[in-house]
Amino acid sequence: MATPLGRLVELCQALAATRARLVKLRLTAEFLRQVGPDEVRWAVAFLTGRPFPVSDSRVLDVAWATLGELRSGAGVEGVEPARSEGVEPTRSATSGAGPLLLGDVAAAFEAVAAARGPGSRQRKRQALGSLFARVTPDERDLLERIIHGEMRLGL
Q1: DSSP of 21-81, one letter per residue?
Q2: In CATH, what number is assigned to the domain containing residue 108?
Q3: The whole model's pTM is what?
Q4: Which of 10, 30, 63, 66 is deepest in the core (most CB within 10 A)?
Q5: CB 3 within 8 A of CB 34
Q6: Domain residue limits at 78
């Protein structure tokens, strides 16, 4: 089963909206029961504000400045600037059909972590730019918090 990133966004919004620990645990457990077996490790990693499971030593090594460039669309050829808050993007055939899935995010993070050597900064920006071109504003916010470990959901 493929889980849309939007479902994780909804969960994170619900978790942020409550202080009740038992409610947070119930919501998280319900979500994880509905996630496909091959996505559980990614869902848990993302919920804890990590791009990879804790047992995985890979890092993204992406600066805040890079995310700022992606928001403005500067320097990333073929990538549209991030959308304004409250404006729902259109998902076109060029940006990928259907909703962005947890597996899509995991694959993009793997590509970013694999970028090494000369030109790696540009390859990281391109991989993230392709990902960010497909997201809604709420999904973009979630991805930025995962990239920099700023989840703060009280889990």
Answers
A1: HHHHHHHHHHHHHHS-TTTHHHHHHHHTT-SS-TT--------HHHHHHHHHTTT-TT-PP
A2: 1.10.3260.10
A3: 0.82
A4: 66
A5: yes
A6: 5-147
